[in-house]
Design a protein that fits this description.
Oligomer: single chain
Helix content: 55-70%
Radius of gyration: 21 Å
Number of strands: 4
Strand order of the largest sheet: 1-2
Number of helices: 15
Order of helices and strands: EEHEHHHHHHHHHHHEHHH
Number of domains: 1
């Protein structure tokens, strides 16, 4: 174990216990970038509440208290100079903060008055010759498969939590940072796409009865489009149809978990089941799924580009150092 000091900043370089699969350089760029992004998203949240007829109840605003354990752990690790553990705490902290604030651009996009594009998305499906009703008809005689896929649809949130926490705890810091960057990029690109291509869901075109949660999502989305005052519930169901954020976030989570070798096949399998379930449960058009997959691929490429940029700057700079 060695110590490298640069202009009064102490950093530990762990030669022995750093996993060979992940060499993570210092965060002289990452943490400031996250701080700036958080400030920008906080301003977006203020604009959302001040100009788009949203209200944030105190009970929801108080949910930021959930960040207190993270900040306490980060402060202790910095005081104790446990830099490796500091990384393991700070990355889930950023993931939690930005995932909360990234909901506000989507709330703003939901106020879009662009005409609904359900018919256009269904037309794309017809061109592709893959439509939702035949998929539902094919699944009808297989209740066990339908139940399993319906259960898979609900596993997205646990998958996201595991992807945000486990790679940092296993010291796969690059994968954890790339997950955060990819999620931010995807949401900031996906929100304008949602505003330009607003849609409810395939049940409004094909006429099958929506499930209770689908009906609730439809009512929420139409209420947001109506422009009236809305009390924000940060735990309310998603309302984005195109691109499918269910598919997008499942893929990004699986990519992060692939940094842990024993989890590669399970993570890919769960993400694949979630992707298929968006169709077998009738939640999304095929075009939504393709849009989610495409945006996920672009977002992963953007996160890899960020990692290359950060690594090049830290390796080449005169004050480059490692924090393991």
């Amino acid at each position: 174990m060695g110590t490298v000091t640069n202009s009064g900043t102490a950093a530990l370089q762990f030669a022995g216990d750093q996993p060979a699969q992940d060499v993570s350089y210092g965060n002289r760029f990452f943490h400031p970038c996250m701080a700036v992004l958080t400030a920008v998203l906080f301003l977006v949240a203020i604009v959302c509440i001040a100009f788009f007829h949203y209200r944030l109840p105190f009970s929801q605003a108080a949910s930021v208290a959930g960040f207190v354990p993270f900040t306490g752990a980060i402060a202790y690790c910095w005081w104790a100079r446990r830099y490796k553990l500091l990384q393991a705490c700070s990355l889930p902290f950023w993931a939690s903060v930005v995932s909360t604030l990234l909901k506000f651009p989507l709330y703003i996009a939901a106020r879009s008055q662009v005409a609904l594009k359900d018919n256009a998305l269904a037309h794309i499906d017809r061109i592709l010759r893959i439509e939702v009703p035949p998929i539902l008809h094919f699944m009808a005689p297989h209740p066990w498969a339908r139940a399993a896929l319906a259960l898979s649809y609900g596993t997205l949130f646990p998958l996201m939590v595991v992807a945000a926490i486990l790679p940092p705890l296993r010291f796969r810091f690059t994968a954890a940072k790339e997950l955060i960057v990819a999620t931010c990029f995807a949401t900031l690109v996906g929100a304008p796409l949602f505003a330009l291509v607003p849609a409810i869901g395939p049940w409004v075109v094909y006429g099958y009865p929506p499930a209770p949660l689908q009906a609730q999502t439809q009512a929420l989305f139409l209420s947001l489009r109506a422009g009236g005052v809305h009390l924000i519930d940060l735990n309310e169901p998603g309302f984005v149809c195109f691109p499918s954020f269910h598919v997008l976030l499942a893929v990004l989570s699986a990519v992060a978990l692939c940094s842990i070798k024993p989890l590669r096949i399970p993570a890919i399998l769960v993400a694949a089941l979630i992707t298929v379930s968006t169709l077998t449960t009738g939640w999304h058009y095929v075009a939504d799924v393709i849009g989610g997959l495409a945006l996920a691929a672009i977002s992963v490429a953007a996160s890899k580009a960020y990692s290359r940029w950060e690594t090049a700057r830290l390796r080449g700079g005169p004050r480059a150092y490692r924090i393991s």
